[in-house]
Design brief:
heterodimer; A: mainly beta; two-stranded antiparallel sheet; globular; B: mainly beta; Immunoglobulin-like; Ferric Hydroxamate Uptake Protein, Chain A, domain 1; Maltoporin, Chain A; 22-stranded antiparallel beta barrel; five-stranded mixed sheet; 8 helices; 6% helix
Chain lengths: 473, 913
Amino acid sequence: MKNKISIIFTALIVQLAFYSCTKQEVTSISSPVFSVSQSVKPGNISGTIKGTLQSDSIYWVTGDVTINKGDTVTAQPGAKIYFTGNYNFFIHGNLLSIGTQNKPVWFTAAPNKTLLVKKDIPGQDPTTDPAYRGWWGGLLGDTTTQFMILKWTHIEFGGGTVGTSPVFGIKNASTAYMISFVNPKGMFVLEDSWLYGGVDDPIRIQGGMIHIMRNTSEKGGYTGGEGIGNIKAGTVGNVAYNLIIGPNTNGVKPSNNGGRNPQTNIYAYNNTILNGGYRRLRVGNSLGRGGSINYEEGSEGLIYNNLFVNCMFGLRIVGTANYLGNALIVADTAHISYGYNFNYGDSAATVNQFYPVNFLTKPQPTDIPTPSSYLPASYTVGSVYDGSVNIQKNNPQFVYYPLPQASGTLADISFATGWDFRLKPTSPCVGKGFINFTPLSQIPVDPIYGATEVTPPGSDIGCYQLNGSGNKH
Amino acid sequence: MNGFFIRKALLFLCIGLATYSFAGTIKGKIADKKTGEPLVGATVTVSGKGGSFTSKTSLDGSYIFKKLPEGSYTVKIQFVGYTEFTNDKVILKSADDIAVVNTDLSDINTSLANITVNSKKSRESDEFARKTEHFSDNVVNIVSARAIEVSPDITVGNVLQRVSGVSVVRTNSGDGQYAIIRGMDQRYNYTTVNGIKIPSPNDKQRSIPMDIFPADMIERLEIVKAPTPKMEGDAIGGAMNLVMKDAPSTLTVNANLALGMSQVFLNRAFSGYSTSGIASKAPNEINGTSYVAKPADFSTSQLNYHNVGLPANTFAALSIGNRIFNKRLGFLLAGSFQSIYRGGNTTYYNSLAPGPDPANSPNFDVIQYRKYSNLQSRLGTHLKLDYAFNPDHKITLYNLFLQLDEAGHRSMLTVPVLPGPGEVHNLDRSQFTRKTVYNSTLSGTDRFTKDFALDWSLAYSLATSKTPDWVEMDLLRTDITSTTYFIKPVSHIWTHSRDEDKAGYLNLTYNVTKNFELAGGGMYRSKDRSNFYTQYNLSTVIPGGFQQVYSTINNTVFSFSPASNAIGDSTNGNNYSATEKVSAGYIQGKWNLKNLQILAGARSEHTELSYVSQLSSQAAGKFGTISYTDLLPSVHIKYAIDARQNLRASYYTAISRPSYFEYIPANITGDYYTESGNFNIKHTQSDNYDLRYENYFSATDHLFAGVFYKHLSNPIEYAFQQVSNNGYVYEPQNLGNATNYGFELVFSKYIRNWGLSGNYTYTHSAITTTKQVYGLDATLHPSYSYANQTRPLQGQSDHIGNLSLLYKNPKNGFDGQLSLVYTGKRINVVSPYLGLDFWQRATTQLDFSAEKKLNKRFTAFIKVTNLLNNPIIVDVLHANTLLGRPEQTDASKILVQKDVFNQTYMAGLRFKL
């Protein structure tokens, strides 16, 4: 017995000796399944791709598409990328979508391989408008994305859901932005392109050097969302010459929220924004989320030459406040300059918010209508005033868009098709712009790998210039 | 505060204190012959011509009979487990004569070899607990069943707070749930039942919610602060071992029945709901992941709230045990059921990301006024069977099933933090959770020779947690004065987790010489864990894109809008599965050298964990395996200064394993920062030193004083990690080393029927982590930067203590205690931002309990908790920017949370056979 016992204990000692020293973690973690990117061919696409989406060819997206870090997918003029279901482009690498005026690139929905028909009818019920259904997800960049450059590209009907996002900056099980860019050192260019519909923000930038110029945004956001740019910390660039109609909330909303450097610095100039802020759910603090351009939470920049027509609010420079129950945090007011912005309103509610009540926007003598023409001497920044003298005055004189708006509510028109927002030569916007500042220049000028054209500030307020420059749509 | 119950309680106490004055006295003291300790509760019978009188010895072993007529008396002293003593020659010569009869009884057990069955009474007694502490090989603190029975506590979660060096983390209804041992957070401690580690029903952590254990099922609670090599090694803070009630030597039936009330529901209504309509499975679990759900698939019955008229708490417990078949087969079957209406009222300031000027200035959006109405149903059953083939071979089958149902309703009003009108919300959340723990252990002890024995266990355990159809409804009004409510989208979440353990243990003991015992053995455990999570959001938008006006939940029209929401989110990052295999071996020797005992040895633990997550296969770390091995040496030295005093010194090494979910690199993107798991984290290792002086003055009086020092390598803390050129995630990380040291004092002193017991622990720890600073740069532009902050470990209070005033009168069977728990200030939530941690203020809780023996079988008892109704208050230690807002009274700090739980009352009857 004693022998057996000693054998047992000896065995134990041997076992311990076997593990005689502490071993630190040996980890074996799955590497990303590096599917060697397949050069894409027209037809069905899904999985990991690289290479070229060829001119005038149709690509049916039948599953999530991944672009590996370091790879670039290029869409040539006239390439058509049709999503047949709720799929996303997960872009760890880069995306170039280089359309032309005559041959734009299309990212749109085609359930059952049938293209959708837009319901661009005044007063269309948003709950039955296909624009807001989220047919596919988004073009979702990652922190490794060096550039996403989209020129003359249609992006429509996106904003579906994402499960566990393989890219940074998208919440679990939430709605995809039609475009998400999250690399403060990367380059994001959206030029001469069209955004249509979406569920949340059509574009969410959480860091990036950006150039968003001469685009058209319609029907941005379903029950929330900003027209062309919900911009968070780490973002620097120009947002200019965009036509934004019917954004659910604001056209542009820069904020320095989100823990990334550099400080958000946006030059927003020569944008035309119509009917902003009215499609938000219209109850409680949804009424106070903005309607044109909104600078908040530590963001800085310049805001000149913008044309606001029937927006729920004029330019808002946010201070720390309880606004209808919404907790607002102050913008970097020391580093924001603005003026030469033009407001038009059909109703008392609109004209009395050209300078939003309880905000920090200071009336500028260069604004139109001239503040001194209607603000009382006792006016202080953010106070209530009677602007009724401006109701339906200063018609900006679009080539074809009836003002005052004939009927219905200001939420009813959220699409551009059928209208012409160019200015008549007699427009009060003509020649009133401020041109003595230089746009930000983070983005190189290049027909492909940069901005084709950084349009300098224009002398006509709004996105269309009588001389033909500015927005080309 | 409700004075009625307190007055009643005090009256009850006073009755017990009533004393008598007599003359002609027989008195004395009874002690244990071997140890000299006073024997408490021994029966003393005095019979003579004036009649026969019976009394029990008090806490210091004394007894007294007064006002006896003169004459000759027989004094008989009986005590379970001791030889009887009789003196029939006690004479009282006059009415004022005093006769003193002292005696020392000898323990009959000491004369019997291989006693395997102790009397139940002694095992559950305080005296037994003290003896176990006294004679244990290592540093432990023990709470006896009897101490728990007379305490105000009904769950183990609350019992823990009475133990030296332990503070608790409370649930939203005020119950202790997780133990912080010597300032070490729950992740550094583990729980065993009869020495078998139990898996956790918790979805993300390893820690077991201690409120799942009804207090009346345990025989004693052991807090091991310095584990020996035989014990599992992941006890940097310590290990909690629940020794469950064992088969008694004779037929024993215990029952108790009690009723109670929570003061919070005398002040306001309990708002409950029916759980009968809750769908146990999500539509995509029933119909497959691609199922397109319809609004009709979702029940809203749990959003129909009704007030419960008389929310009476009920408590019942029954246990039956005996040894039959010639005392070979022992059994104990016990069940405990508690149905408790628990709740509290909370004021909460919801934080936003801070502002830059001045740096990290706190921002808040809303004040939340939360009211919790939680119906807890706690069920515990266990069956223990043991069969002794002979004194050397015994086999035991233990089965435990615990179930804690909580039908929680959180009703919340939110108003803007900054003054002024604005949108307010009424939010209601119905969250029904069922947690279960099952354990079945077959174990045996075999003694092959006088010097060689082994014991073994095979254990199967399963812990589950299910939260089916957790619903949240949000009604908004444009202003607090408005009466029109609009209903926001309603979310439905199904989540469940499962953790299954299969384990085997083997221990061998060999007495090499009379003074040297060698022990060794091993353990193997295989764990399977899975977690499921799915969410649906039902929209309430109505045609035209308008908010829907709310009338009743049944009239609300739901839709999936956008339609893509109709497909459940089953690929959410919260879904994962993991397996873990732990194999361990140890060897230890125990030398007994006169007054010195040295126990030394080493344990080796090998861990292999694998996980599979829902990440895309394109992402790094969709699945992974992590393995590591630790050699954990320890030495425990006990020096007996004399029969009553010990000096202990110990050194041990321990580890802490990261929880499964902490490895999984799924990003959980929030509004202000992104959280993630981290597969690069290393397990924590520690060196721990303990020194303790113990003095057992008597069976009831003792004093422990000790110091401890812990050095942790790779403690796991949450901090920002840069994941790209400017992307940061908040994730678990190893941040170098931390130290934790302190001092503990435990005492108890009785003078006749009065006792005072208490403990005090001082702890100091420090850890440095990286936090975010949002401030202005040199050019006065806002800029984010990262800075190190040194702070105590989360949950560590510098000062914690307990003080109890006890009164015991064995003569009339009255037992009362007033217990105070003090928890010093501590960090409750570590903020990702520099200087904005959430600190819980120091709190004091006072509880009262009392019982009175009515007759041989019945005892009446009452328990009142939280007499002072002291709130739990949490602050951010930053100059107050919200002075004048509700509850904001201190200019030096901002209150972010205040919980008020009110008193609870309970009264009942206990039956013992």
